Amino acid sequence: MKVCSVVVCYRPDIGALFELCRILLRDGSGVILVDNTEMPYLDAHAVPEGCELITLAFNSGIAHAQNMGIESALRAGSAVIAFFDQDSTIRPGVLSTLVAALDPVAPEVVSPLYYDADSDAELPSLRLNRCGLVRAIHRDESAPAYPVDVVISSGTVATKRVFEIAGKLDERLFIDYVDTEWCLRCRSKNVPIRVVPAASMRHRIGSKSIDLGFATVMVHSPVRCYYQIRNCLHLFRMRHVPRLFALRETLATCFSRALLLLFVSDRRRYGLAYWYALRDGFKGVTGGAPRTTASLIQ
Question: Which residues of the chain form beta strands (DSSP E)?
């Protein structure tokens, strides 16, 4: 059974990236690196042996870059495809444990148990009820695999059949909510998603987090905030996304981004990002941010 891991790269830390590649290769996976940097950043002659490099030479968005990796993996005959961020930190054996939990001929998705890379707190996966109300699911590493509806993309492992049934990633979203939308599309197609606690990994959300006691604010750049707010509004247009879930995400994201304004110095640029995000979200603008917008909020 051929397993392939797709790692999307954007100005990565070369040492950390290549260490991730070596661990994945030792776990029996092929590795496809998709260089999504505006100028070619990775040298095909320098990547670890056994890795394939796809150079896009522009920032196409994570969804398009992942789709390029998926297509390459499928052409190579992969039965199982895994996704990792360029800064993912995993131990040897994590990928093997996830792959072993799959039936390679069935449509199935599995993911590890996530911990915050800074605080070591468990990052919960989400379960939705019929109405779309969300419940955070917490387990420890001794628990058996359990069903969820939304997981983080990094560390996710899926069989070939999943992409045949649910399709690839939605490139209209460009970056934020790409994994969430795809998970909910899997849910709508009755493709099961399970967390395998025996496999765990550290994951970092944003550049840092600010704990306010009553809320945790993730710090992102203005352009990332643009996509977060804009894409929440796009969720309302998707029939497979429950309306209550879209409403929850929109309110939570707007509240969190409003709190972030208290802690950043360049409030004007963040404010512009929020305004353009709301404008473009209501107008239905998709893909990368319009050039004039991007120049103001970069």
Answer: 3-9, 30-35, 51-55, 80-85, 109-116, 122-123, 125-128, 134-137, 146-148, 157-159, 193-203, 208-211, 216-219
